[in-house]
Every structure is written in C-alpha cells, then in structure tokens.
Amino acid sequence: MSESYLDLDVTVRRGEKTLRFSLQADPGETIAVVGPNGAGKSTLLDAVAGTAPTEGSLHVAGQDWRRVPTHRRRVALVHQDHALFPHLSVRANVEYGARARGTGRAEARRRASDLLQLLEVGELAERRPGQLSGGQSQRVALARALATEPEVVLLDEPFAALDVAVAQRLREVLAERLAGFTGVTLLVTHDAVDLFTLADRVLVVEDGAVAQCGTPAEVAALPRTPHAARLVGRNVLHGRATKGRVVLDEGPELVTATPAEGPVLVTFNPSAVTLTTEEPHGSARNRWRTVVRRLVGAGDGATVRAHLGPPTLTVDLTTEAVAELGLHEGGPVWASLKATDVTVQEASA
Ligand SMILES: Nc1ncnc2c1ncn2[C@@H]1O[C@H](COP(=O)(O)OP(=O)(O)OP(=O)(O)O)[C@@H](O)[C@H]1O
Question: Which residue numbers delimit the ABC transporter domain (predicted)?
Fold first, then answer.
C-alpha cells in the first residue's frame, strides 16, 4: 500500500503516442503542471479523472482508483471555459456539485453559501451564469468544484481567460482556499506567477513524460527543459562537456567554471548576458557574434526581451539600452557571458 496521498504511475495511449507519468503527492499539496503545447498536461489530468484509458497504478487516499469508476472518483475539474449550467442560479449550480455526490439538501445549501462567501461571490447567489463576468463565473465554477468535497482538484488553466488584475485577485482567493484543503491539487498553467504564488511543487512535462519535479525555487534555479527555462525566465542550452568547456549543440563553445563530462544543460539568467556593438574585451570568457531574432516589449514600456541566436539566448534590457545599441531585428550584436554566471547540470541521456 502506498504511503503518499496520491500515488500515480500510469501509461496512457493517445493515438500513436504513449505517455508515461509518475507522481507522488502529500495531503494538501498543490502541484503546478507545466510544459509546451501537446506535452501531455491535459492527458495527465484525464488519467487522474479517469477520462482517458490508462494502464498502471493510481492510488488516492488509500483507495485503488483503478477500481473506482470515473463518476465515483472524488475529483473536481475546472477548465478555463467553466461550463456552468445556464438555466440554474449561481447557488443552484454550486448546490448541484454537492448534491451530485449524494449530500442532503440542507447540507448542500449550507456548503454552497459558505463556499460562495469564501470565494467572495456570495452576493451573486441568485443570479444566472449569463449575468456574471468571466472572473465571477470562474469563482462560481471553483465553488461548484469544491462543493463536491473532492480528494483531488484538477485546475486546467483556470485563469487563462481572465484579465491580469482579475486573475491575480482570484489567485489570492484560491491560495487562501487551497491552504485549508487536505486533498491534492494539480494546476496546469503557462504562467510563472502561478508557480510562485500557488504551487508547492512544479511538475515539468515534456513529450509525454515527466522531465522534472521540484519546488518552484529548484525549477527556477535549474530548469531542465527549454520550456521550463523560458517560463521562469532563464536561458538553457544543451551541449556536451569536457574539462570546463561545453560544445553547444548549436555549434559554439562555452567556458564554464564547473567541471563536467558528457551531456549537460547549461543555464544562466538573462541579466547575466551583456550586449555590445563591438567585440568586448573585458573579463567575460564567453563572447559570441550573434543576431537579434526578435525584440518583445514586456508591456511596462521600460523593458524589452531580446531573443538572439545562434546560440539561442534571451536577454532582458531597458528600452534605452535597445536604443543606445541600435538593436533591431535581423541586426548583429555581440553577447558576452562570464564563466562563473553559468550553471552546469548533467542532462539525462
Ligand atoms: N483524444 C486524443 N486522441 C489522440 N491523441 C490525443 C488525444 N488527446 C490528446 N492527444 C495527443 O496527445 C498528446 C498530449 O496532448 P495534451 O492535450 O495532453 O497536451 P497538453 O500538454 O495538455 O497541451 P496543451 O497545452 O496544448 O493543452 C498530443 O500529442 C495530442 O495531440
């Protein structure tokens, strides 16, 4: 019998693809699931919910969930399109969640009132879903999901359709609510903010398998996939190390301060890269003449993210610096990087 609250080790076949997931989680844990499009994040949720045919083992709260039919699994799923019942009031939508699990009418009503209050939409109880904003609807959808007293909550990009301020407020409300939740929450997200505000751990999914699982700080410090690196704003390059040098898969060499041998991932902060128009003559051991591929404003008007390559680099700089350097897409630039700013980790074969 498994020690973990949730213990999953499954294989899922989807068309031509075979996806394989393994995850153990403790009571009360919130796990962010990240990865590129098509990596298998939704498939992982489907495997837990029982809506995808799976082989392997899945235990939740001491029960063998392979023996629990899908409709009896104590699992609540919230998507970005919340799909509330349009003909029922907000209150009735949330009560439905509880009643569907066999809860009595009075208890369901009490639970719905409590949850709507907690999610700060108590005053909307008599409205119909059509009379709610996107953020309000999403709160009601969360209330309805939690009213089922689930053992596992599956949140599939629940903030994706909301504007930034609404999403931020809902994150705060959800963080409070999840703090008192004793089950396991899996949260699929493409937003690094979720990692640092909601997640106890981050599960990085790549190409139908778990590429990394660690605390948000661990993944931020040493992301093991380019997607995770981009998400947390770090650079990651693949290469092969011999004696303090790494021959990058993209061609150029990189000098590092850490001895390593064999396949490696090298990571570094965008702020560690210095850009110049002339070849730099400072102490930086690594310098490359490269090309500006894309310049993307950060939305605050003051900072710009430059994508360069080869080698593929991301660099954050101020709009003044962009102007001073005369950076433009397709234009040349020198990038330099100190050996001591580079972290080297072994790559799994
Ligand atoms: N019902 C299905 N039948 C066949 N293949 C499927 C099915 N559902 C998903 N797939 C495939 O399985 C893989 C994983 O898809 P999945 O939707 O789990 O990825 P995801 O990480 O959730 O992606 P996204 O971020 O785009 O939602 C993809 O290659 C996808 O094309």
Answer: 3-232
Torsion angle, CA of 123/127/131/134, rounded to 10 degrees? 60
Work out which ligand 1 atom sits closest to the CA atom of 52.
Answer: 1
Residues lining ligand 1, Cβ inside 6 A = 14-15, 17, 35, 37-43
pTM of the model: 0.78
Ligand 1 atom with the smallest distance to the CA of 190 is: 25
Residue nearest to atom 10 of ligand 1 (CA): 14
Which protein residue's CA is at the shortest distance from atom 7 of ligand 1?
14
Residues of the chain under the 50 pLDDT cut: none
**The predicted structure's pLDDT at residue 301:** 72
Burial of 214 (C-beta count, 10 Å sphere; 0-12/13-18/19+): middle
Residue 259 structure tokens: 């001895």
The enclosing H or E element of 227 equals helix 226-231
Q: Sheet containing 343-346: which strands, arranged edge to edge?
A: 253-255, 245-248, 235-242, 262-268, 343-346
pLDDT computed for residue 308 by the predictor: 92
In angstroms, what is the span from residue 41 Cα to ligand 1's centroid? 8
User: What are the C-alpha distances in Å from 172 to residues 52, 60, 139, 291?
Assistant: 32, 27, 12, 41
Q: Which atom of ligand 1 approaches the CA of 40 most closely? A: 18
Cα(38) to ligand 1 centroid in Å equals 5
Q: How far is the CA of 19 from the centre of ligand 1 (A)?
A: 10
The 3-state DSSP class for residue 1 equals: coil
> How far, in Å, from the CA of 39 to the mean position of ligand 1?
7
State the DSSP string of 234-257.
-EEEEEEEETTEEEETTS-EEE-S
DSSP 8-state class, residue 50 = T
Q: Find the 43 Cα to ligand 1 centroid distance in Å.
A: 6
Terminus-to-terminus CA distance in the chain, angstroms? 32
pLDDT value at position 79? Answer: 82
